[in-house]
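ok so I'm stuck.
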Amino acid sequence: MGKRYLKKQLATGLKLYEKQKNKGVEDRSFAADLLALDKSLQENRYDEAKRLGELIATRIKSLKKRSWFFRLGELIFTLAAALLIAGIIRQTWFELYEIPTGSMRPTFKEQDRVLVSKSAFGLNIPFYTAHAAFLTDRVKRGTIVVVTGDGLDLPDVDTYYFGLFPGKKRYVKRCAALPGDRVYFYGGDLFCLTKEGKLINVKSDPLLQRREYIPFISSFEGRVEAVPTTPFSRQRVYLLKQMDKAIGRIEINPDGTIASRILQGDAWTPEFSGSKALPQTFGEFYGINNFATCRLLRKEQLPHEAHRLGYDDPEALCWLELHHSPTLPPSGKPKQSSFPFVVTSVTWIPLHQEECERLMHGLYTARLVIKDERLFRYHYEGEPHHTIPLPTSIPDGCYEFYNGIAYQIGWGGHETRLDPSHPIYPKTIKELIFWFNAGIDATPEVLVPTSQHMPTRFAYFNNGDLFVMGEKVFDKGSPLLTAFSDREMARQAKDYSYFAFQDAGSPELEKSPVEFMSHFGFEVPDNQYLLLGDNPAMSVDSRFFGPVPQENLQGTPILLFWPFGPRWGCPTQPYTPLSPYSLAFIAITVIAYTTYVIVSQSRMHRRLHRLKEGSLKSS
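replied:
not stuck anymore, here's the structure
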């Protein structure tokens, strides 16, 4: 028994003694024990105080004895009050979260625990998706935000707080653009044109330089939505949405052919028509054409067309296959049982030893689980239905790659860096190809060279350099890249349907940003925010469900407290001091606790004084 516990027993005993006395029942032995306990504490005779504390605790227990019905009601009331208070605190002040997915890697990883400030941006109304007050200047480009899924076009957003109260799931993303911004993607960068006409590269912030920005999630077509042509029609129109805005439209004609259109201004227009100041193809929206999806192929997997077009290279160890420049299927084409919603140009670039080493240096994967020499992606809700075989024997466990370094994941998400001799490290080109193609999706389809299901890997040019996985694989002007570019331009000159994959740069963006952004950029609506994950290969974000309304912003993570390690501490984001609401919550808590302690001590002293006076009169 500590001194604090004994004082608490004394205060409780005094309260119960007065209650009994007011009922006309006076227990002199109980009063004597209370006075003796107070004297023992004042004289620091802890052995005597502990003995008296045990006696008083027994007496308190007997006095508090009530009927089971009363105790049940008291328990229900206490639990209800505790849940209500906890719910209000979670909604308005702070909350603890466990990160379930890798959408915010490397800032947050699966199984990370974070403390979220719910008053960072304003004052949330408990149990509602709304604010009593909101400070717009506290949300900046680069700020990490926690949002509720209420009203977002997402499946399975319903959940229960404490397993009892219905609510909506929370998601953590990074603010990429503010209300009124126009955005455009180029070279892994994100350009924002502000309302004031200032052009900003979000990655110019030193805190965000290791981030990649990709304008689509895993495929060029984005989210496909089928809607009837009329309210009661069986015919369907397929809308191709990026940022939750339809920019492509494919309609099935009565004769079974298709009619493809893109959005030009407010009208649906066939590709390669209309004003040249507006997007002419599906891929010209938002900078989609600046990016390619890619996979690695061995020489025997290279298609016949690649050999025919002269992409052979006797010194190449493997080839990077690039799918790029998406367009809609030509109108008039007969409908098939399954047809692609976009058509891409395909090209190949040979990789030598140096380029393969650069790929290995930049290799990153999802968190992966190996069991019985088969691989599947880690999932917080259990094992998936599909697994894929490994190219080499690797011990069972949970693993991941980041910047070419392999880690084994232990209990609670703790990471252990693995020695390069570990069998998980690629020792052959075949193993490198496996980890590149299967390291994110870990599905059987990505291992089939002819599959339309491409790995979620991206390639892009930035100022003449070619990047893959955010790693520079080819330097501007390198012989291999120059030969590739020359071959691309020659191929485009011979084939009008082929679009060369080249660095178009962004000259219009730099020369006339206002005009360019108004035609080719995406505008973030007022009172909404463009939110993206730090890991574009694994994040479902505004590219899928569109900009997020202001009322959905619930707070920001302020501390990663588990697991302990180099990432422990405040997450990487622009510094923002505590909001006035956070300071008010802290001040109210300190004042309330101090007042409670003072009042409790005062009451105890008054009761003790009355007990002493009563004892003196009796004597």
